[in-house]
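Appendix B. Worked example

We walk through a single record from start to finish. Start with the input: the chain for CENP-V/GFA domain-containing protein, Acrasis kona, length 153.
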Amino acid sequence: MDLQGSCACGKVKYGLKSHTPYPYNYCYCSICRKTNGSGGIGINIMGDNKSMNIKEGKELVKVYQSSKSSQRNFCSECGSHLWNYHPEYPDFIYPYASSIDTELPKPPHVVHLMVKSKAPWARINIEEGDKQFDEYPDQGIEQWHKKNNLYIE
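Next comes the structure step. The output line below is what the pipeline stores for this chain.
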């Protein structure tokens, strides 16, 4: 699936391909909460890093090294978190669903992860079929899409 994304001020625009576009993974860790700032959660999807194309505003994209292995890219003009990159997985890039302008498909259920780290004020709305984990589940983004027959070739 071809995806188009941008920041809030519109000065950074990007595109990429994703085989795993369902925004199902709700992360409650403190880093996602603080860098994304949306309701106490962060939601990312996974894309093909080789297809990543920053169409406008490349000079405005800055990196916050949130851990040894996590490079969070954001717009230096408006502060919008755009995508995360992990050098140990060079084939993949993890755009925040909130930065995607393309209409994303609605997941049949969601996974609430890192619940042990959630802010006390954050609400977890569990619906039928949802799963909840104190930490990271064993199943990754690609596996979840394949298991649910949602992987797009």
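Two observations about the output. The helical segments are 30-36, 141-147. Residues 108 and 135 are 21 Å apart (CA to CA).
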